[in-house]
Amino acid sequence: MASTVTVRPATPDERARLDSLQRLLTHPSPELLDSWPTVGTVLVSVDDDETPVGYLLAIGDHLAELVVEPAYRREGRASALIEAYHARRPDAELSLFVHVENRVAQACYESLGFENAGRVTDAFAGEPGVRMVRSRE
Length: 137
Prior knowledge:
It is an enzyme of class 2 (transferase). Helix content is 28%, strand content 36%. The protein contains four helices and seven strands, in the order βααβββαβαββ. Strand 2 (41-46) and strand 3 form a beta hairpin.
């Protein structure tokens, strides 16, 4: 376990690693990751060797993807990624979608201060999701 969690902006040369992490998602959006340098922000959580072990992909106030490699979960990395992004947008109400059946992710986001804002019929290519929001306190 890392003693401190380091979060920093991703670099283009880390793209292959981000692709690998994205494959851990049940509903990835490769087209969003493809367009990240021009339309979004990617922050990475890195291990002691500076290798990305998790990332957050955001477009404006919407967190489109958040993933942490299983071996690095429960170390505060998801929280650190969200906090780092919220620090960049201090007045934002952050939003995200979670698949309706992914109760573990919903509970994780609730523990990070997100609230259920209702069901969305077509959040994941025709599949339902839950919209969750978090305001800066």
